[in-house]
Fold these 4 entries.
Entry 1:
Amino acid sequence: MTLISIIILIIACINYINLSTAKAAQRIKEVGLRKVIGAYRWQLIFQFLTESFIINALAVIIAITIIQLTATPFNRLIGKELFTLAMFDLEYVEIILIIFLCCIIISGIYPSVVLSIQNPVTALKNISGRSGKRVLLRNILVGIQFIASIILITGIYAVSNQLSYMNRLDLGFEKEQILTLNIPRNPEYLNRVESFKQSLLMEPEVLYATSSNSIPGKGTPIGQNFDRISKTDQSSESFIRLFPFISVDPDYLNTFDIKLIQGRNFMQDEALDHDAVILNEQAVKDLGFENSEEAVGAFIQWTDWNATLRVIGVIKDYFHEAPKWGIGGIILQNGGYAGVISDLNAIRRPGEFLSLKLKIQEMQSTVCAIQAEWDRAFPEIPFDYFFLDEEYNLQYGEDQQLGKIFGIFSLIAVIIACVGLFGLTLYSMLRRTKEIGIRKVMGAPIPNILRLLTKESFVLLIIASLIAFPVAYWRINIWLENYANRIEITPWLFIVPIVIVLLIALAIVAFQTIKTALANPVEALRYE
């Protein structure tokens, strides 16, 4: 946001410089008269800097007013309390003054110098000196605006594509129609979970129910150290890794529709599988197994508790956390830890989740029925639930906020650039009205005039694109490094923004050109 705000200020200052220098010809006589009657150069510079000061002062007042009017919705958008009226303390005043002074210097110095150096003789003859250099400078400044606009639009397009890509990813599990209940962090309540779960399965709208100490979208338990053990000699092969160790029941896979690709699921009788674990595909790789077939039936060492566990199955990889973070190794364990370690409560997390797979029909009545069962099982605690798809999507919140904020401020920057280009084109057309009139009298068709006058903008845009693309690629590539699953940077990521900027710029230039070209040439030439 800081970078975008700087770009917006630069574009605005460029507009002021361009329009000020473009209108310099209209003020040549004014400068000449002031010099003839004794005005010093520093007085002229002071005059034009004062004009810049007044414009920037008005801009500061309007900006602060807009900030106060939009503070609440903006804070709601970003999810943070950044701006309120009371927050304009000394620190903020200092920042505003620094920005204010910088804008005055950037936008006011060059126009004031250009206007103050005019020779009074040539000025009174209404002849502008060194116009070619000023035109070159204006073209450079317009090119900078094109560069900034292309970079910003490319950034918006990249953010949008990345968010869309993550939303389209196959998560490897089902998060729709999953209602999850928060079981209080108390061993006393955990003992009632199984009977409560069985009562819920009697409801016709409840398809599956599973209890676990972690669910997708809610993070993972503290990692535990595991090591691979050979099936033959039980000797360690040095594949120690840190894995989330998730306690689940046998219905976990069915409830979340997680695919079992090798081996079997846990048995309902916890005692029969007290030392059994299920690995995901990534855990199989991290523990050094060549494939899922080799992993099933093998043993792994729980080094933190010096316990030996046997692998009974392998599940397909799924995004337990947001796709942004990628897929890590996961080990599922059947229920409690009886028979594995002696101190059951030393590692078992007291917090639990009870997740229910529901039918689509009669959702509201089903929730009411579940609440009624809850009140019977846990009368002393409130009913606390959420839908998994909504909770899981909260992990995208930061990226979605980034996309919205980036889009809004980039749009503002592009609009400001378009306004500047519109004003500069309008002034250019006014200066070339007679030229266009002469060309029409000599028989030039409107398409030829349009091509002649838009050629310069087109060339500027091509040059700006060649400069903007490497910068945009560099910044986008750095940003995408934050994502384990990310889009490929293809040529289309740059072609679309350049086409958008090209269409906007040519539409602005063409509008003014056609308007001037359609005018009666007699109106332009009648005073000659």
Note: Residues 1-129 form one domain.
Entry 2:
Amino acid sequence: MATELEKAYQSKKVEDKIYRRWESSGFFNPDQLPSIRYPLSAKPFTVIMPPPNANGPLHIGHAVFVTLQDIMIRFWRMRGRRALWLPGADHAGFETQVVFDKKLEKQGRHRSDIPRDQLYARMLEFTLENKKVMEAQLRKLGASCDWSRERFTLDPEIVKIVTDTFFKLYEDGLLYRGERIVNWCVKHQTTLSDLEVRYEERTDPLYYIKYGPLTLATVRPETKFGDTAVAVHPSDRRFRQYVGKEIEIETLIGPSKIKVITDEAVDPKFGTGVIKVTPAHDPADFEIGKRHNLEVRSVIGKDGSLNEKTGPYAGLKVAAARQKVAEDMQKKGLLVKVDPTYKHNVAVCYKCGTVVEPLVMPQWFVKMQPLAAKATTAVESGKIRIIPERYKKVYFHWLKNISDWNISRQIVWGIRIPAWLCQEMRNPKCKVQNGVIVSRTPPVSCLHCGSKELIQDPDVLDTWFSSGQWPYAVLGYPDSKDFKTFYPTDVMETGYDILFFWVARMIMLGLYSTGKVPFRTVYLHGLVRDKDRQKMSKSKGNVIDPLGVAELYGTDAVRMALTVGNLPGQDIIISEEKIRGYRNFANKLWNIHRFIMLNYRPTLTKTKPRLSAGDKRRVTELKSLVKKTTEYLEQFKFHHASDLLYHYTWHTFADKIIESVKPRLSGEDHADRAAAQSLLIEIHQTVLKLLHPFMPFITEELWQNLHEVKSPAKGEARQRRQKSKVKSLLMIEPWPR
């Protein structure tokens, strides 16, 4: 006796049961797929999941990538490929540190109050708890990933691969520790890479200051104590008489002299055409300083306060010092004028919005230009395809203008840098090497000068350095069977906003370490926005919880809402109304099935159907539907495929075909009745298969019911079929042709 379906689709009663059935089958693991359909010689299809940060629950953006990647995996699995979707989680270094800092703040504590080992242990416990929650949510969203291969960026085998790359880069001369200008977040007390800085347009005063016979404009009078030159453009004739000379200037802490230099970086149209050069506190000035061998004079500390080199201003925070210096220059007659309406871009921390302070300090850097050249060639040659193609230009532009990458962070949470620092540096060779010893094991003494005064570098690696090695690290590079079978992977699907943060770095490090591209296709989706095209944020109150709406309307409805209208590289419009609309579609599909099953007569299968001309036309239409859907999915046009199936199912199958055959199902002509029934079953089975990658839960439930009705089993046969691993699961049914 077949299970009788309820009148309306109850997603809560179906989804957990179906997922358990999928997971217990073992078919998420490509090695356990039925050998009859999936021989070991079958071509694999591999997607490495972008590891969600294990510091909180999934959000609607995660639901987008889960949906799109699961569509790919289910489609190619049904096409006979040994599909591997490898899941994982990211320790998320700095971002997790920020989350944990907030947790400590609520307790009235600061991370500096907790010994390093204890803090790390507490953060690990916090992260692993969140990881379990996140993995349960991935299951809820229907992710058919291979949990037996799940990885975490702090797994020992992953850490080893990441640190091996660190050693290789160092040995190849592509990694160094040096004093350069970096982005310093005063609030979080760590450096940030250039990509972790965002820019805000602000209106600030532009101060015109006397420098002896010259007048220059600056927004930062408080850094004048660190000026080591004055610069003009080489072709600016106005200041030719001063170029190459030292001019006498009056400062707030006494008279001084400063040299006038020329540099192409000076904009003659900015201010008066004269700029002050402060190599220690401005990235552009730092580069000017390198070109002209200028002194680097730091006058601001890590706490954001002026230091002892600023005389009476020492101890003042930057903002307060700026105001005080301007006031005192006014009193001393050194301030010519102030333009209060100057608009410019200000660098701020992407997490807290604090103005970033450019400081010069020793950090670890990767030389990026040699790596960028190969990454450029990989896309230019077509070894890697980027969808949509317009992002290739952005990718090339970024790689062309790339600078060395600061990979060290001053936090506890992450992979500790495998290097030791000499505290004495007695030998000249030791000074040249900055007292650095890179070693897989703690050295007994300094390899340069013999000193035993060594400490391990307290910094950790930027999380993008470890996640940049994700595709080959999780597959057990270099010797594992998985690496040899599944690498290079087929698709990297992720948001366009991390094309540089992550995708480009995976390409660079993948090529460097393995000699092969990490993936053949990059598919970029957009950011999720509300129905008014506003970015979702808690402050706006427009955030949609994917698990919450899945509980209300069903996961399949959420997945369809995130797919229809979702074009690559464009932002995704989502609303509860849209999700509710696809809940109605799920109900429509359910009612189609109930109607067909209620009118199904097993005895008619023994009668040879006599297809009418209209029936044959419908079969031809169905084949066209299969062909178009297949082409769309092969071309990564998920939005077209889902929209096509939605309209066919509702407006053609339900509204036209079913309505037209209703009278025939109760007619006296058995051959015609058999034809009508056969047509409905053929279309219905095909539609369930085509919709399965998009709406896996309801289609699997209906597929199971369909085959119970068509092939009822009794007694022991029924029990054997229910226990069998290879029971007719829709997820491994052949894709229609």
Note: Residues 190-358 form a domain with the Isoleucyl-tRNA Synthetase; domain 2 fold (CATH 3.90.740.10).
Entry 3:
Amino acid sequence: MHKRAVVVVFWITATVLTVFLGEGLQRVLTTPPPSTVQVLTYHNDNARTGQNLEEKILTRANVNAKTFGKLGFLTTDGLVDAEPLYVSNVTVSGHARNAVFVATEHDFVYAFDAETMTQLWRVTMLAPGEIPSDDRRCGQVTPEIGVTATPVIALREGRGVMYVVAMSKDKVGNYFHRLHALDIASGAELPGSPVTVQATFPNLHGVTTFDAKQYKERASLLLLDGIVYTSWASHCDEGDYTGWIIGYHAETLKQTHVLNLTPNGSAGAIWMSGAGPAADSQGNIYILDGNGTFDEKLDSCDMPVNGDFGNAFLKLSVQAGKLRVTDYFNTHDTQAQSGRDEDLGSGGALVLPDLHDDSGRTWQLAVGAGKDRRIYVVDRNDMGKFTHKKNARIYQEIDHMLAGPVFSMPAYFNNTVYFASVNDTMKAFSISNAKLVPTPTSKSSAHFAYPGATPSISANGSADAIVWAVEAHGSEAGILHAYDAGNLANELYSSSGKAHSRDAFSDNKFITPMIANGRVFVGTLTGVAVFGLLPQDKNQPKPPGI
């Protein structure tokens, strides 16, 4: 007969937790101090900068293979395509926790204790008798489609609410998308949740109708001015689809806005490799949509006469209670780009902070790139619209600096924009005179194969800035890189180095690392790999989960 395992917990200091398991097995976890860090949305903020400027634990000095590595693994049922989210000091079952939230393609949402890595709750997004959607004969999200888009969290009046879009199908083959509102303390559905996504939009023939089986919610959710915005992608280029954006009131889940970007044409879907629609402080939304119909015949305001905006860098605003396209940029060769499937919609948009040129003029800009390997910087107050002359009215265009197409989005920190395109190094473009300097100031030694990488930034204010990125490396093996943000040639850490056997994890595409309170969270095929500072007592065994 085996002796029953006894667990005894001793608090040795404020930062070290020692646990004795069974017959003397001892494990030590470094527990971060109380945190105020919140990662409530994709890439940290609505501008989609990717910055966490409250990272006080990870520094350029301690992020290395000796002191930093994989601490454990958050096991889930289903692939993790959505970026994990993080909330400090959530009260769960009467105890304050730093919690990380994970959504999966098997239609589950989880909460884990970010320090102990124990599961706090798990809930399904499926209605009785349903299963996750099949992949709709498209290899972009496979073998099943459940929760693909990164959710968004609202903190208000002492309550946290997570908004999640989930796809499913029933026994007779009907497909559904539902928007859920979950209490982050328990995972419970809030009153009125979920709502089924349904929509129509007027066109020249009457209306066009949202058909659930034609779409997936790939781009991350946006919470702006009390509205949860969903945006819809196709399954590859299969079927009769168009570009939908649908908004819901965050309190009531009542549908508030419906916009179709190609109502009298086709295609123009929004997926941006998982990046979310970006927003500025004035309440405007910025997206890049995919190849599709663009009406080159323009009205007196230089807007497409039939309202078709395929393959465009778009600015959306709520005017007179309706969501509308209020400005845009289309390339001079937009029709040819769409025909070659070289659209802008593979990349995400980034809203830059206000910039000042040498004359003191203030510029409000956004930046994005897609499959044509060009970086586009638009003036958010005059995006350039369309002309047959070679992009004559755009604020700035940079050619020949990206080696491959962009299936990701950039990050911003300290007057620098970071890109990692396909089959290219990561490159840092500094900003001078309110424009990107075309020649990179630094670049990584590592090359990023398909799909490139979306970098994330951790820093303590302006100090100890680190650029994090996940490299797809084939054979389902991923590599986590950490670079000095001031010089990408200075690689601080790689999980493929001497610590590969300790730090290995399975790869998943379009993964954006999330950094919070001394931990780095990386989505994988079976859960989330958790990295952080390792126990430094060499006599101690590896941390849990390794």
Note: The chain has two domains: 1-31, 32-533.
Entry 4:
Amino acid sequence: MPHVLPRLSTMVLFRPLAVFGLLLVPAAVLSAQARRDTVSRDSSAALDAVRIRAAYLPRVTGSASATVITPDSLPLGTAAPVMGDVLRRMPFLYIRQNSRGEAELSVRGSESRQAAVLFDGVPLSLTWDARADVSAVPLGGVQQVEYVRGLSSLLAGPNAIGGVVSAKLFADHDPTRRPDRLSRLEVQADQFGGVRTSALLGGAVRHSATSSLTVRAGGGFRDLPGLVRPGDLTEPGTSDRLRLNTDARTVDLFAAARYEHAQGRYLAAFVSTLDGERGVAPELHVNQPRLWRNPVVQRRIASVSAGTGGVRSPLGVGDAELSVGYNEGYVEIQSFSTRDYAQVTGTELGDDRTITTRLTFDQQLGDRAVLRGAFTNAEVRYLETLNQDPTSTYRQRLQSLASELDLMPTRFLTLTAGLSSDAATTDEAGGREPLGRKDGLGWRVGATWFVPSQALRLHASASERRRFPALRELYSGALGRFQPNPELRPETAHSAEVGVTMERAAFDLQVVAFTQRIDDAVVRTTLANRRFFRVNRDRFTSHGLEATGGTTLGRVALRGDVTWQRARLTDATITDAAFRRPEDVPQVFGSLLASGRLGGGVDALARVRSLGDTRCTNGDTLERQAGATAVDLGLERTWFGAGLFRRLRGTLQVENALDQAIYDKCGLPQAGRTLRLGLTLG
């Protein structure tokens, strides 16, 4: 496959002034056409107490707690978002940038490889590294992102032991209703000339009372000169306001189609592609950080799926779905010896491809029981080229066969029990002896009780499942920084949670208590030669509380969330070993969003996000990284009109208005004060 990417910065069409010029013409026309309508709408809207787009909604799915976000309705959001941008707004989910320049996620204090990430059913975390880089997954066309904090089902596939993030393209499809026409053009620019812009078109190609064919297509462009350095930080090698080597440029395109019959039969397909390049921020807390760049970053995601819809049998109504997913990523890593990034001292080329086949079914068993099952087969192939060495080939097969039974003794009580059999087989190991097959069993039980008179939902669940080490954990040397360890054993996760969700007219509230233990946890140690080495040495434990709620106080809408977690590691090979905190895991983090209507139809928004202290290793020393609080502010104004673009929204945002240093990971701060101006048509 070709890996040559033209310099995106030469694409003058997408530069800030050109993009704003393109948008201002239709914006002015729309504003003029809609002025009379705007006055009447604004004057009537002034009678409303509050007008706010939902930040997120708490839910219960499969006796596990969940949160749902609609990306294009997020307050204080970014234009042309990638998955990492949206997941940073998801409560209870901790997103951090690692020293490789990737964005990874942590669920309830766990390591990033223990959560599953799905893009319209395609598992992005079944790869060479067993985790998804959510900074390279565009969300063009995605209607909904759901985050299940626990293990809501064994049917999600292998290696899903804690937390599932799922992006859905057609979350609201209904063949009996004509799909809404979609047309959106947006642009956002910051004070340093960074630009984000995207376009989306979609709607019904054909629609009748019995069937519907919906298509959607679009693309996005991002040209970012770098992350703003918080004002109280200094950085070796630069005095600029932008952090060293943090620029990024990407282009993405997508297309999707779905045909569905009123009886539920459907056929769907999509393809998404991203091409770009990016710098990798050097860590500030170590003397010899990685000095890397990714001159090429690519992602290809595609899927074809079909479903039978409801089919009647003597047992009841059942349905089956078959999907084939394709996920390919290519990255080039360049290593440098000095902070001027002039002399390349090492290269690594990684070509990662996974083909996944999934077959699922639901079958009613009378009026009070449903049997569900799934078979997942993933073929992972990775081609690694280090410097001028010959290319090494790695192959791993991951399989899962699972079934669950839902029993409904009453209308308001659901009981769930399930079993799974998971396996991993290493077929090629870069010329070394392959590991062969490893397998394990899993189980899960759960219950959900709904109390309609109190608008109350109670849930509880417990599970046990294994995660097989990724090819990268077993074999990668990471340009000489790691000593491979092909003897790693699978991790075993034991999880449980109990929660309550209340939804009233004036407020909603969800509180969840959780606990989990991971035996044979894979941890990083340091050898005498200063190379890192992964071993099954520790036991990981985590327990805590999660709470979220929303209400309205006069003309102000509030929504907040907080996570308290106590995560600890202990060396299981030593009797009475001391507990210690894992790296880069905060004990407390949360956010509060407030929104209200000002005069003239302007909405004001404010978000406070706070992060507790973390721990990180610098050489042989475990250091404390202080927590911090950041404040984001924004103003929005919407005008309404007619035609293809029926709405114009202008936004002014200040991210991290107090210019605080708030860290994703030790030595890797988030952006300092950033001003953004945006326009959205449609």
Note: DSSP finds three helices and 36 strands in the chain.
